Amino acid sequence: MEMLSQTFGFLEGMSPWWWVALAFGLAALEMATFSFFLIWPALAALCMAALTAASPSLSAGVQVITFSAISIALTYIGRLLFLKYGDGGGEGDAMLNQRGARFIGRVGKVLEFANGEGVIELEGMRWRAKWPEGHTSKAGKSARVTQANGMVLDVEAVD
């Protein structure tokens, strides 16, 4: 403990506002890197600011050990919460870059059809479509999306 006091002796009698400054610095680094790691030590620094404000006579060693323990505890708890609840992105984000896959099961209007391929309209947008082998359709009829292959939708006629 004496070695910690010698190394971090500058913390003796220091204002709690230095812990607040460290918290803001770590939070700024977190926002710049999006690591989702530095937020926990930043919160620990805020806790230390409150502790040093409540008890200004804390030794440098106690401050360092307490900051380390709080950082480790908050990081562990934060990781557990992240694993349990995720990032809150929701289910829709899984198909963010698969726009056509969002239309599976939906029914659109056939605009053009020839030789098993054509164009359908879904939500006001035109999509290239492909019908199963041997199936036909006509403009104005309805078609249900069964699969998305990139920007081409596999469809089937709806009666």
Notable traits:
159 residues; alpha+beta; OB fold (Dihydrolipoamide Acetyltransferase, E2P); 41% helix; 22% strand; rod-shaped
Question: What does the model show?
Answer:
By secondary structure, the protein is α+β, with helices and mostly antiparallel strands. The chain has 4 helices and 5 strands; from the N terminus they run ααααβββββ. The chain has 2 domains: 84 residues, no CATH class; 60 residues, OB fold (Dihydrolipoamide Acetyltransferase, E2P) (Beta Barrel), CATH 2.40.50. The protein has a 5-stranded mixed beta barrel with strand order 1-2-3-5-4. Strand 1 and strand 2 form a beta hairpin. It starts with a helix and ends with a strand.
Task: Give the topology.
Layout (H helix, E strand, L loop, with lengths): L1 H6 L9 H17 L5 H16 L5 H26 L21 E8 L2 E6 L2 E6 L11 E8 L2 E7 L1
Helix pairs in contact: 2-3, 3-4
Report the average pLDDT across residues: 86
Number of helices: 4
Low-confidence stretches: none
| Amount of helix | 40-55%
Query: What is the molecular shape?
Result: rod-shaped
Element-level helix/strand string: HHHHEEEEE
End-to-end Cα distance, whole Å, is 81 Å
- Work out the radius of gyration: 30 Å
Task: Count up the domains.
Answer: 2
In terms of quaternary structure, the protein is single chain
List how many beta strands DSSP finds: 5
The biggest sheet amounts to: 5 strands, mixed, barrel
Portion in beta strands: 15-25%
The class by helix and strand makeup works out as alpha+beta
Q: Going across the biggest sheet, name each strand in turn.
A: 1-2-3-5-4
Membrane topology: Multi-pass membrane protein
InterPro entries: Membrane_assoc_protease, NA-bd_OB-fold, NfeD-like_C
Keywords: Membrane, Transmembrane, Transmembrane helix
Organism: Paramylibacter ulvae
